[in-house]
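Lab notebook, bench 4. We co-purified these components, and the gel suggests they stay together. Before we commit to crystallization screens, I want a quick structural picture of the whole thing.
Request: model the full complex, all chains together.
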Amino acid sequence: MSSVRPLFVVAGIGNGTGTGAATARLFAKSGYRVALISRGPDYLNKLATELNQAGGEAATFPLKDYTPASIKSAFTSLKSHWPSSPLRVAVFNAGYGVWKPFLDITEDEIRESIDTNILAAFAFARAALLEFTKLEFETANEGGVAGDARKRGTLIFTGATASIRGNTLTSAFSASKFGIRALSQSLAKEFSKQNIHVAHSIIDGTILTDRTKSQHSDDPSWEANQDVRLDPNSIARSYLHLVRQDSSAWTWEIDLRPAHEKW
Ligand SMILES: NC(=O)c1ccc[n+]([C@@H]2O[C@H](COP(=O)([O-])OP(=O)(O)OC[C@H]3O[C@@H](n4cnc5c(N)ncnc54)[C@H](OP(=O)(O)O)[C@@H]3O)[C@@H](O)[C@H]2O)c1
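Here is the predicted assembly.
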């Protein structure tokens, strides 16, 4: 029997140093075709070239924004790019954060937060679930999960501490991250009956990315000490674990934090 490579899609790549890119790298190595969705065509192309040169199969689907119409169109493009590949894994990793006292937050920031963290998550989930519901269970001749996993697909949302805890500067961010968490829980309950696995991941700490490195530039020990910050590659391994769970023991929510995080 010829093998059909399953398809993995991730939205939110940033500059290629965070969770989205690390997850794409791991799933490419694990036998998935990788569809990359992001607003930054240059970083997207750089990551796709890297994955293809490493023996993977990646393609880019740039969008100008995370409106539902742009997300729908990116999914239409990726399906026509790989018409015979079943979409098996979808990761919604995009996030807009604003950390400000409540009285300083603008209406635009609130809207951006809701549009990126909630509305876009709804659109991404809809596009992924429409694909999953068309599929039979994943079979052993696909490169992803074992053939007895009784699974049509896995949808993962990247959350944050703010998904479960509001704080002094997080009114807009937290309200919208709570929203994604509620969405993911509702979807997990609605779609598990169809053997579609929906999971939410609380990232409870700072992820090591170019942006957070620059925020710790006065303390080089922060980057060097793996016990104090989350490595995006470690998060990616947890996502692969979620995907490989069989249907008798599915996780809806994981929380991930470095060993020395105070919580
Ligand atoms: N960094 C952390 O310490 C941390 C901690 C906990 C949770 N998280 C969560 O982890 C996920 C990924 O964050 P990251 O740190 O890896 O990446 P990042 O550098 O914080 O970039 C944010 C991501 O969100 C996307 N995004 C969409 N709309 C945006 C907007 N209006 N403004 C800014 N970014 C926007 C970007 O997508 P494009 O690819 O289109 O640019 C980018 O991939 C997010 O959901 C975030 O909330 C991060």
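The radius of gyration is 18 Å. Worth comparing against the SEC data before the next meeting. Residues 12-14, 18-20, 38-40, 66, 93-97, 112, 116, 158, 160, 203, 206-207, 209, 211-212 surround NAP (CB under 6 Å).
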